[in-house]
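Q&A FORM
Asked by: J.P.
Topic: structure of GNAT family N-acetyltransferase

PROVIDED:
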Amino acid sequence: MHKYKPENKALWDSFVSKAKNATFLFQRDFMGYHQDRFEDYSLMVYKKEKLIAVLPANASDKRVFSHQGLTYGGLLFSDMLKLKDVSVCLKLVLQYFQSNGFAYLHLKQLPTIYSPIPNDELQYLMFVLDAKLLGRETFSVLKLDNKPKLSKDRVAGKKRAIKQNLVVKEEKDLAAFWNNILIPNLAEKHQAKPVHSLEEITYLKTKFPNNIRQFNVYLEDVLVAGTTIFETKQVAHSQYISANVDKNLIGSLDFLHIHLIEKVFKDKMYFDFGTSNTNQGRNINAGLQYWKEGFGARTITQDFYEIDLSSANKLDALFI
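REPLIED BY: S.T.
REPLY: Here is the structure written out as tokens.
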């Protein structure tokens, strides 16, 4: 636990409604399943004893990053905080990192669909801080209360799957999908491994059994495709999608995702297919983008910024 008293006490006092003996607490939080890959520098921010914000982060070479082991991140804060409160909170976070010897914070924004309320406070504050835009990635997203219109290709894929008598099952065990489909495909096509090892994703599922769900597709009891879903209150996100070489011939991935969209997650607000980007957002896998848009998905973006920590004082003159 790190206690940090801001230089501008009057500004902080206004944030805590002039509460007596108010302090701003930074608690270093450690992400156990990534500790061998990153120097964790995650923060939990408290007003008195109430948690008001979290920043999943790691440190490297005098820089702090919105955690590089996470797809989403950024400074996440209570919906009770107003714009002025967020600006004070961000300023103090920047000062904290600077006081610990860092020069820059690389901040990734939370995609808007993952917030239950409007949340562009940080986007605006990046402008005020003259933060440098380093990258922008796209995500293919369905808004499920507006019935998606499937393309002819996706409908044809579903028909092929029905003719093959494919079956979708939700499974508690992720091992079959990881070992028989996902890992071999990534190794063969991209000479890569999943971001999460089987051990890591299994550990996470034990911690969040209702939020990490595995759906597999079977042809005569043989596993042919699957997806690992990360579920939040309003979003179902396909974190991993993979199938065997017959996926186009038998329509396995089309069948799977139409099933998820129309039946399993039909009451969610959004279905997120994730990114099709490469090269830090400057290129898009055309085939993958075409497939996702065939379900009716459209594009939202996620921005990545570099903040010079010495610029924190620019927030002092924000409100006049």
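FOLLOW-UP: The two ends are 34 Å apart (CA to CA).
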